[in-house]
């Protein structure tokens, strides 16, 4: 009789232990190692109050060392629709920076005057939208305005 009581107790204890382990496994997240903090830019899009403009203007060759050449983009000017210059953009950080500068602007209509590879100094009307980047491509063979949700502008020779 004692063995039946011990067996009954062991069976109940084993069942309770299995139930406890199963519950713990169901309600815990599995991961390998520690969880690190989130990496990347802030994702608070509600705080964005501007749009962006990138102008791929004509490039100029600069030599840095022996036979090492870089092609930084030339400067350009941004005007409001009334014709007032509101910003001069150098369009590179140094003589070896080949990426055009990303400029933040209040959403709206602007006029860009920049040097084009094919057409010299050109005037490009642009539209800047909230939280979007408008890109103006003036490199050889691609005189067009494009960007996120493309806003097409007209290029006039001057």
Summarize the structure.
The protein is an alpha+beta fold and 158 residues long. Helices cover 16% and strands 33% of the residues.
Please give the oligomerization state of what you see: single chain
Q: What radius of gyration results from the CA coordinates?
A: 31 Å
CATH class of the domain at 50-157: Mainly Beta
> How are helices and strands ordered from N to C?
HEEEEEEEEEEE
Task: Provide the low-confidence segments as ranges.
Answer: 143-158
Shape: elongated
Structural class: alpha+beta
Beta fraction of the residues?
A: 25-35%
Biggest sheet architecture: 5 strands, antiparallel
Helix content: 10-25%
Chain-averaged pLDDT: 79
CATH architecture annotation name of the domain at 50-157:
Sandwich
Distance between the termini: 108 Å
What's the CATH topology label of the domain at 50-157? Immunoglobulin-like
Taking strands numbered 1, 2, ... along the chain, how are they ordered across the largest sheet? 5-4-7-8-11
The total strand number stands at 11
């Amino acid at each position: 009789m004692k063995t039946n009581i011990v067996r009954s107790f062991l069976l109940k204890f084993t069942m309770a232990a299995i139930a406890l382990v199963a519950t713990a496994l169901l309600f815990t997240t599995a991961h390998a190692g520690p969880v690190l903090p989130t990496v990347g830019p802030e994702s608070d899009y509600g705080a964005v109050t501007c749009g962006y403009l990138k102008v791929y203007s004509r490039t100029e060759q600069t030599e840095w060392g022996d036979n090492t050449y870089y092609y930084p983009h030339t400067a350009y000017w941004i005007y409001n629709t009334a014709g007032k210059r509101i910003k001069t953009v150098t369009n590179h950080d140094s003589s070896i920076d080949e990426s055009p500068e990303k400029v933040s602007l209040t959403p709206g209509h602007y006029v860009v005057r920049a040097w084009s590879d094919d057409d010299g100094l050109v005037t490009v009307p642009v539209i800047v939208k909230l939280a979007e980047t408008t890109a103006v491509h003036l490199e050889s063979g691609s005189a067009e305005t494009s960007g996120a949700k493309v806003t097409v502008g007209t290029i006039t020779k001057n």
